[in-house]
Amino acid sequence: MNAGVIGVGNMGRHHARNYSEITGVNLAAVSDIEPKIGKEIAKRFNCRYYADYRELLNKEKLDLVTIAVPTKLHKEVALGAIAKGIHILIEKPIAGTVADAKIIVQKAKQKGIKF
After folding, report:
1. CA 59 to CA 99: how far, in whole Å?
2. Which pLDDT tens digit goes with each residue over 10-69?
3. Residues 6 or more apart in contact with residue 28 via CB below 8 angstroms
4. Residues 6+ apart with CB under 8 A from 9
5. pTM for the whole thing?
6. Residue 56: which residues within 8 A CB-CB, separation 6 or more?
7. Which of 17, 27, 67, 95 could form a disulfide with 101 if both were Cys (CB 3.0 to 4.6 A apart)?
């Protein structure tokens, strides 16, 4: 199973570490807008780094992705992953508003995406 992490700051770095330690899971790539942080995590866990999460979603063959970006970006990033058919784990809260959370849930159900 190939996993990715979008946002490897305070919480995302722990998801990257956990994926790298789970038998049967390959941490394929991470993405972060801060190159220094993203490259450091990618090097530590021997995976690819992308500054732009959209590039990660387009270039990597992922089964799941953790979304650990600022809450205001959860909807945008989640919908991008859902559109690619990638299962998602979103750091809490799911979204900045109830309306955005409902959209994420609805789109995931429509596409058969687990999160």
Report:
1. 30
2. 999 999 999 999 999 999 999 999 999 999 999 999 999 999 999 999 999 999 999 999
3. 2, 3, 4, 47, 48, 60, 61, 62
4. 32, 34, 37, 68
5. 0.97
6. 4, 6, 29, 30, 31, 48, 50, 62, 65
7. 95
